[in-house]
């Protein structure tokens, strides 16, 4: 398993997603440390982001708090974010960004939230990520809400 993680982490360096994550972490005041093959950036300040953490490459950005505080709220947070690091590698890095936002849009249309129908969040584990699983709504209803009708 450690060999596979090493390959994943190397892939995320080569595909530039981990350097991007480290750059965001440093630029936004994060304190860096390593854990289980991941870079953890604590107390990162990203205005407008409504999440307890997000992953860029093999870097987990813990937003506005320490890792201990985040894990007190959700003990399985790092396991969820570790899955996202695999997704960055599978998407060859930066293409993950538009793919993820498209998945968020689909989930908003289908379920009214950013995670319930998002294949990236579902594969990473909704419950271990701290997300509820909302029911699907009629497509017409979701599109009407999206376009303000």
Automatic annotation (TrEMBL):
<keyword id="KW-0472">Membrane</keyword>
<protein>
    <recommendedName>
        <fullName>DUF4157 domain-containing protein</fullName>
    </recommendedName>
</protein>
<keyword id="KW-0812">Transmembrane</keyword>
<feature type="transmembrane region" description="Helical">
    <location>
        <begin position="44"/>
        <end position="65"/>
    </location>
</feature>
<keyword id="KW-1133">Transmembrane helix</keyword>
<feature type="transmembrane region" description="Helical">
    <location>
        <begin position="85"/>
        <end position="106"/>
    </location>
</feature>
């Amino acid at each position: 398993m450690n060999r596979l993680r090493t390959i994943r982490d190397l892939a995320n360096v080569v595909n530039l997603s981990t350097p991007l994550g480290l750059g965001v972490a440093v630029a936004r005041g994060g304190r860096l440390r390593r854990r289980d093959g991941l870079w953890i950036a604590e107390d990162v300040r990203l205005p407008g982001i409504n999440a307890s953490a997000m992953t860029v490459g093999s870097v987990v950005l813990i937003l506005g708090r320490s890792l201990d505080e985040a894990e007190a709220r959700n003990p399985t947070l790092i396991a969820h974010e570790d899955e996202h690091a695999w997704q960055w590698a599978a998407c060859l890095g930066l293409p993950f960004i538009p793919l993820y936002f498209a998945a968020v849009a689909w989930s908003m249309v289908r379920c009214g939230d950013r995670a319930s129908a998002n294949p990236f969040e579902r594969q990473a584990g909704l419950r271990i990520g701290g997300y509820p699983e909302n029911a699907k709504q009629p497509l017409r209803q979701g599109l009407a809400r999206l376009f303000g009708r």
